[in-house]
């Protein structure tokens, strides 16, 4: 487990560089389902992967809006999420194009729409739960998908020189309260905060760590795209910019909207192997349920709760055509 000093050093290095830019069970705690004015108290735990400096894993996804599904009458607009390969230090074919758009003020809004969305995967206990859940998992160690607003609060406290112990320390750690309010008609979590007093985990919580172990959080990141999948991502991106409908036959075996089945005859995704580290430090493999080609969680709200994708207006279509022309001109030069 990394020390607090090592975490601070890594965070400071990232700031100096300008900022580096699920499964089928219910182990993910849906804090976004809280009512306005409610709060939940959680206790973060270390990553089971001791090579990870942090107690979280950063996840970066790109949302591709499509004007419905090809061949379906009265199809509503859909969203497909694809992994941004900058997570693995590779050049992202989408962001390579999008970065150039910010040089033109008329394209900035379009650029923000296709920019990567960061979220952060944590694990821990839910100590105060205001949400009525029909069923809670047998393993009380839950996963948390934290968006940038809450993550900024978490990170700023770690840089506080008055903080002496890691918040994940089992004996002298800190609880974190996620508080939900609203601002401008949207969910707001800016009043979330760390507890002031240190506390030890309970006997029952220690038993859960010993018996169930800690997740290796990196195993919950999206699968790294292959070269073929990268070409599909680029093709989908260009079709999305062009205002086309999502084509299940062309892309369904690779990436698809939530709730859309793979095309007939396509192989479903092989169940992923997750890893947990038990209380003795031994690593155990666990089989996860098969996942859809794209994951549904993101940011402080699930992607299904996002605002509807607006149909491109006549004025904006010119921008889309200009952008596609730029993309294809660059491809012809390669």
What can you tell me about this protein's structure?
- This protein has 334 residues and is α+β, with helices and mostly antiparallel strands.
- The chain has a single domain (4-333), classed as Alpha-Beta Complex (Replication Fork Single-Stranded DNA Binding Protein).
- Helices cover 26% and strands 19% of the residues.
- It has eight helices and twelve strands.
- The chain has helices at residues 4-16, 93-101, 108-113, 148-158, 203-212, 227-241, 248-251, 314-333; strands spanning 39-44, 57-66, 78-83, 117-128, 142-146, 176-179, 181-183, 186-188, 193-194, 214-215, 273-277, 283-287.
- Strands 1, 2, 3, 4, 5, 6 and 9 form a seven-stranded antiparallel sheet that branches. A three-stranded antiparallel sheet has the order 10-11-12, with no helix packed on it. Strands 7-8 form a two-stranded antiparallel sheet.
- β7 (181-183) and β8 (186-188) form a beta hairpin.
- The protein is globular and about 55 Å long.
Top keywords for this entry?
334 residues; alpha+beta; Replication Fork Single-Stranded DNA Binding Protein; seven-stranded antiparallel sheet; three-stranded antiparallel sheet; 8 helices; 12 strands; globular
In brief, what are we looking at here?
The chain is α+β, with helices and mostly antiparallel strands.
Known CATH architecture? Alpha-Beta Complex
Give the tally of β-strands. Answer: 12
Q: How many domains comprise the coordinates?
A: 1
Predict the CATH topology.
Replication Fork Single-Stranded DNA Binding Protein
């Amino acid at each position: 487990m990394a020390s607090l000093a090592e975490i601070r050093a890594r965070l400071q290095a990232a700031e100096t560089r300008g900022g580096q830019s699920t499964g089928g069970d219910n182990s993910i705690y849906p804090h976004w389902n809280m009512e306005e004015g409610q709060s939940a108290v959680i206790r973060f735990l270390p990553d089971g992967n001791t090579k990870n400096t942090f107690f979280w894993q950063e996840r970066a996804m790109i949302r591709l809006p499509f004007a419905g599904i090809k061949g379906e009458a009265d199809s509503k607009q859909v969203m497909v999420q694809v992994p941004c390969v900058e997570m693995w230090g590779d050049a992202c074919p989408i962001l390579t194009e999008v970065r150039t758009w910010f040089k033109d003020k008329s394209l900035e809004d379009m650029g923000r729409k296709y920019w990567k969305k960061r979220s952060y995967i944590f694990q821990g206990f839910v100590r105060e739960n205001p949400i009525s859940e029909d069923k809670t998992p047998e393993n009380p160690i839950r996963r948390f998908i934290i968006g940038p607003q809450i993550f900024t609060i978490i990170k700023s406290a770690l840089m506080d020189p008055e903080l002496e112990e890691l918040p994940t320390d089992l004996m002298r750690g800190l609880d974190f309260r996620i508080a939900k309010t609203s601002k401008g008609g949207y969910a707001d979590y800016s009043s979330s905060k760390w507890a002031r007093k240190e506390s030890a985990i309970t006997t029952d919580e220690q038993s859960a760590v010993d018996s169930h172990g800690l997740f290796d959080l990196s195993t919950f990141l999206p699968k790294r795209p292959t070269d073929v999948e990268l070409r599909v991502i680029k093709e989908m991106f260009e079709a999305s910019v062009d205002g086309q409908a999502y084509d299940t036959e062309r892309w369904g075996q690779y990436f698809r909207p939530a709730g859309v089945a793979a095309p007939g005859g396509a192989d479903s995704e092989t169940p992923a192997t997750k890893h947990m580290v038990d209380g003795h430090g031994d690593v155990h493999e666990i089989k996860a349920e098969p996942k859809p080609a794209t994951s549904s969680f993101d940011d402080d709200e699930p992607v299904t709760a996002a605002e509807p994708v607006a149909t491109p207006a006549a004025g904006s279509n010119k921008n889309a055509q200009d952008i596609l022309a730029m993309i294809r001109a660059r491809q012809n030069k390669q």
